[in-house]
Structure formats: structure tokens, C-alpha cells
Give the backbone structure.
Amino acid sequence: MAGLQNIGKVPELNKRILFTLALLAVYRIGVFIPTPGVDADALSGFFQAASGTMLDFATMFTGGALEKFSVFALGIMPYISAAIILQLLTVAIPHLERLSKEGEQGKKKITEYTRYFTIVLAFFQGLGISIGLESMTGAAGEPIVYDPGWDFRIMTAITLTSGTAFIMWLGEQITERGVGNGISLIICAGIIAMMPSAIGNTISLVRAGELDFFLVAILLVVMFATIAFIVFMETAQRRIPIQYPKRVVGRKMMGGGTQHLPLKINPAGVIPPIFASSLMIFPATVTQFATVPFLQKINDFMDPMGVLYNVFYVGLIVFFTYFYTAIQFQPKDVADNLKKNGGFVPGIRPGASTADYIDRVLSRIVLWGSIYLSAVCVLPTILMGQMNAPFFFGGTALLIVVGVAMDTAQQAESHLMARSYDGLLKKGKMKSRGR
């Protein structure tokens, strides 16, 4: 990424970066716009009493919007949940499967379905939370909702649904006209926004004697070691050698030589933890506000430090790592392209045998990739919890921030390289005209 120092020399990339930052600023402003009808002080007391639960995790993913119960309280999670469900249904429903194979037009149609489904999920989630809030009280026993009833419930559901729809639009605009994946950047921006308060809480704990300075040093070492491990694993590759035969073109011998097919150890990036977290947060934000005994039992299961929770969380990460890799990478297509271009893996027959070989290699490295993701997401979080550290420093948060930062930097570098190629082509055309 040595070319990133030339960002200031590319006006188009500058505009994209400024556009991205502007929309992220709009998102952060919306986090502080409160939903009508709620006592903010009483709600704050409720969240303080619920500290250490899954609500902390949900608050982190919404950038603090849930704790403030702002218009963005649901965050982008309903959109991610809708995308997960539709991707799973693509395998089961023939119509969706056909759309997924129709190229750009099919993807646009699936994206349209995802938007509609997001609105439905957000509305019912907002309705469930509003009903639960009516029975909740603050730290001093004061009611959180000023005027309970269906007027409050419908207004809250519509407000929160509108907030999620707006965030969804912001994310799509960033992806199309900015730099990086808009949805991931919004989640990343929310996590980073929680950093100052997490640092402040750590300092307060140290001053109060509740957290030893030596433990803080260990905390920092673990955090930086985790970051270094994430960077190493996100850039790690398994290279499959590809041999190209020499060909006679006219009187010259052309081509030939050995190249490599790079397979990332973690082809799915930060998508599996985001998907897994979304599915865990979706019921948690409803059950936490519910008074129904059955839902309370589900809420008791949603303990970030609990064994069952972490086993289920790891299972989802492993599943989504394989699932997302299978969607994004097709060994058969790669093998067919190699065969068309005359390339082959030494010792492996072109065609079906090559596809099977690539699939076997990919399955093995994806296993290690899923183990890496699970370890980073679970082990540091448990360690930080045992040390009474701020929830922000969990492994999932670090993985998302580092992964999204690396992905955004790579996209910025791609824009720079595209700009360089355009410049070379223009110079070549000018020279040819001069002749």
C-alpha cells in the first residue's frame, strides 16, 4: 500500500473520500437525535443496570444509538439480517437462485427484495422494543415511556424503521460513490465512536482502584497482539502454482512460465462475524425489553461470557465463513477459465480434476480461516471480561475495525492504480498521434 501517499494528487479519489466522511458524519449526527416519547435519564439508568449483558454488544454495533434510543437505535442490523435470510433462501427458492445467476440485473432485484424485507424486520423489531419499554423503569423506578399506548408504539416503530432505512441508503451511497463498503464502514464508525468513552471508563476504573495498572498493561499487549495477528491472517495466502505452456506465434515463442493462484486464508473477511453478530443481536434487542417468561429465558442465554452463547456464536462464524466463501468463490469457474487460457496445475488434469483440487485446498484453508475468526472474536472478549475491561475491546470489534480499515485502504489503492493506468493509456495515445 505504498501508493497511498499519493491520495492527495488524485482529485476524484479525494472527492470520494470527502463524500464518504460527509455521509459518516451525517450518520453520527443522527445517533444523537432522540426518539420522541422516551425519558432519556430513565433509559440511561435502565442501560446502566443492564451493563454486562448483550445490550452492551448491541449498543456497540449501533455506535451508542441504542443506549440513547435515537432514531438510529436499530442501526444497520435489520438490513444485515434481511441480507442473510435472503442469501440462505437463494439456495432453497428456485426463483431467487435464478436471479442470483442473472448477473447485475439479478443482483439488483435481490437487493430490492432485501430492502423491502429490511423494512418489515425493522418495523416489527421496533414495535417489539416499544412494547417492552412501556413496562421498563429507570434506576429510581420511574417509567421510561411518558405516554404508553398504541400511539407511542406505532410512532416508535415508524421512527426506528425510518432510521434504519436512512442508514441503509447512506451505506449504499457510500459503496457506490465513496470508498469502501458502506455498510461495513457504518458499523466500523460506530465502534470507533465508542472508543473515547471506553478509554475514559478504563481510566476511571484505574483511578478508582477497580482495575490494576498492571492489568491495563496486559490489556494493551493483548489488544496490539490481536491487531498484529489479524493483519497477518488477513494478508496470508495459499498460492497454488499455475503452469502455462509456451506457444509459437509466427516465428516467436510466446508465453509460458509459472504463475500462482492466490487463495486467502480468510476469503470471507469480516462478513462472518458481522453476520453472526447480527443474528445474535436481533433477538437480544427484543428479549431484553420483554417481560414474557419464555423470552426472558432466551435473554438469559444471551450472556456474552456464557459457554452456550460462545459455542453458538462460534458455530455461526464457522457456518458463515464456509457459506460466504462458497457464494463468492466458484472452483469450477476458476478451473474452466484456466482451461480456456491453457493454464493447468502441475500434476492435476485440467477441468473437473482441477476444480476438485482447488475445492479441496479451499476447504482446508477456510477451516483454518474460520478457526482464526472464532478465536479472535471469542478469546479476547472472554479475557477482557474476566479483567473487567470495557466491552469495546472485544475481539469482534477489533476484527471489524482492522478488517474494514484494510479493505478500505485496498480499495483506495485500487482507485490509485486505475488512475495510473488511465494516465499511461492517455500518454500512449498522445505519442501514437504524434507519430
Summary: The domain at 2-434 is CATH 1.10.3370.10 (Preprotein translocase SecY subunit). The longest strand covers residues 237-249. Confidence is low (pLDDT under 50) at residues 424-428. The two ends are 36 Å apart (CA to CA).
